[in-house]
Amino acid sequence: MLLRPGQIFAGYSIVRLLGSGGMGAVYLAEDPALPRQVALKVLAEHLGANQRYRSIFRREAELVCRLDHPNVVSVYNRGEEGDTLWMAMQYVDGTDASELMRKEPSGLAPDRAARIVCAAAKGLQHAHEQNLLHRDVKPSNILVAAGDDGERVLVADFGLARAIEEAATVTETGWRACTPAFAAPEVLAGRPVDRCADIYSLGATLSALLTGSNPSGPSPPGGTRTVRDTPEPTRVRPDVPPALDDVIAQAMAADPRRRYQSCTEFADAVRSAIGDTERSPRQRGLSGLVRGRRARIAVLGGIVAVAAATAVWPTPHRSDGAAPTSVPQTSGARTGLLRCFWSARVPIGTGFYVELPSAAADHDDPRCALNEGDRGDSVTVLRQALTMCHGIELDKTTVYDLPMKRAIRHLQVDHSADVDGIYGPQTRAKAIQWPVFRVADGAFDGRCVPAP
């Protein structure tokens, strides 16, 4: 349901759309009882009949209402309008940290990145003290606005939040599609989690703010990327204090026991590292370099194990047995499984269309498969759907990689769809929503639909 400016919904007067994602849309609205504006979050209409998503939405309001902290977005009210669930939250007139990254692609100034992450750490520390985990910390969930004493920073979107005692028993099927680039190894593996999962995500967020890119390395020449590679910020930013490399490495350690054990401890380490601007890598000494290298090896080692244990498709090779390649592929069929790398426009009513990964003539052939390292138009339209309709942030790449496969798997689990790949009817029409575009100008029409 797309609300229009001036429309009255649940007593609130809609001002404009602020954004939309996989769970629904957020609108700027006027509060009917108080002279203030609110961010009105409305559950997507196609999820309204899904008891699982209704439960997630309700739980977010119930849990976040327990929080009262200047670095956490407040929830004012919630309710149900017909079959549609809604939630009125504090409106923050600013932007989010991911938008700051887009404006400064080479990375934020180290002291600014540190201030943002340390302020977010305060909000998360309060949540942890209230026995609550966020479970989806990333730049787009950290809001930044102008304040009387500099920038205000607030943690938002507790849609994946869960009480710590519940999270201790959660499995993979209990997770909505998180953002893989910022998720701890135990999250991706579906193992029990605790506060240290949020601390891992804070470290990944700091790395992203400093380097200007999500913590996922590029594919090696002639091969495929099988692990997430978090580069040291000092390798791409000589102005970054070297001590921050070690802070990020410890926060993102594969073993949760080797990470900082509280957000306060992590923030103290960040502030200490930022104050250490006069030490050069040589002055850090051999022991510091060894500690940093060992920590980074531990991170990569754990991620390799997760990648090997949790890949959705078990083989890293293509369907015809050839080794993966990073060279763009052309369309064509092979014996057995098909390698399908093109896309097609499929009409939706009059004057609208969706873009789908195309397989056989009927655009619906489960024999097709994407394997890690494949690339092309089919991957582009898939990433487009995950971003625009499901709010899943992925690297802007045409390569089919592990984070994209994990995102698809989560959607298949959430919607009880067969694991038949993006060309299979269950995944295309049941698990994934596809953005609708206008034929006249090619613009997004603001709605998402299953594949016809």
From TrEMBL:
GO terms for molecular function: ATP binding; protein serine/threonine kinase activity. It is an enzyme of class 2 (transferase). ATP binds at K41. It comes from the Bacteria. Residues 12-274 form the Protein kinase domain. Keywords: ATP-binding, Kinase, Nucleotide-binding, Serine/threonine-protein kinase, Transferase. Pfam families: PG_binding_1 (PF01471), Pkinase (PF00069). InterPro entries: Kinase-like_dom_sf, Peptidoglycan-bd-like, PGBD-like_sf, PGBDSf, Prot_kinase_dom, Protein_kinase_ATP_BS, Ser/Thr_kinase_AS. Residues 210-241 are annotated as: Disordered. Residues 226-238 have a biased composition (Basic and acidic residues). Its EC number is 2.7.11.1. This is non-specific serine/threonine protein kinase. It comes from Nocardia tenerifensis.
